Amino acid sequence: MFLQVAVLLTLLSHMPALDACPKCGNMVVPYPLSTGDDCGNPRYRIYCNNGALEFLSAPGIYYRILSINPGAYKLVIRPPLIGKNTCYSSDLSVGGLRLDENLPFNISVRNTVMLFNCSDNILLSPLNCSSTSYCRQYEEIEEGSGCKGTLCCHFLKDSSMTSHRIRVRVGGCTAYTSVVDVKPKDPADAWNYGIELQWTSPY
Ligand SMILES: *[C@@H]1O[C@H](CO)[C@@H](O)[C@H](O)[C@H]1NC(C)=O
Ligand SMILES: *[C@@H]1O[C@H](CO)[C@@H](O)[C@H](O)[C@H]1NC(C)=O
Ligand SMILES: *[C@@H]1O[C@H](CO)[C@@H](O)[C@H](O)[C@H]1NC(C)=O
Hints:
WAK_GUB; polysaccharide binding; 2 domains; signal; Wall-associated receptor kinase galacturonan-binding domain-containing protein; 3-stranded antiparallel sheet; binds 2-acetamido-2-deoxy-beta-D-glucopyranose; 9% helix
């Protein structure tokens, strides 16, 4: 009897964990996302820290998960904060956002990325750094006020560029933000700020 139970338990513990994870705070954690070894699919690891869901970047920075759309295999993380007095993103010291290329997540093509406090040589790149760039509107709202008057640019994160990185550095651009599916006619404080990530299906 004891032996049978022991064998059964051993079998169960070697079966793939297929159940969805429990809620984190008030957010549902849909499969395959996984907040622990005993639920979800461990390749899709995210973190439940003090009741808040977070995504961990390759250099070890946690980004708050704002929303998840399991049907579209997408989630949105909060862009890093930008200083009030300096135009520095909070992840500047690690070079911005970088995803581990061995994991099944990438940065989706619906993000409009804005870069701030760029050095002049950015003007040689195909970014939109004109006086009508969306980044000028962001500078006018409170969150972007630390970057007011700096050289800034925007670009659509399309498939022609790396899908695992948004880079900032001292001597390049020192801050960034991102808007999902930008609505040019809406005011900048009504935009959907976030970085949309997508994952490959586990099947
Ligand atoms: C812009 O970045 C440079 C370094 O590239 C830094 O010296 C300067 O303080 C930054 N400006 C602001 C407003 O943060
Ligand atoms: C830059 O972006 C703005 C806003 O989308 C657009 O009106 C303008 O034509 C763009 N300029 C260039 C040079 O692409
Ligand atoms: C990102 O991942 C999705 C889902 O696997 C894939 O369809 C898409 O081509 C990837 N995008 C890039 C730019 O690699």
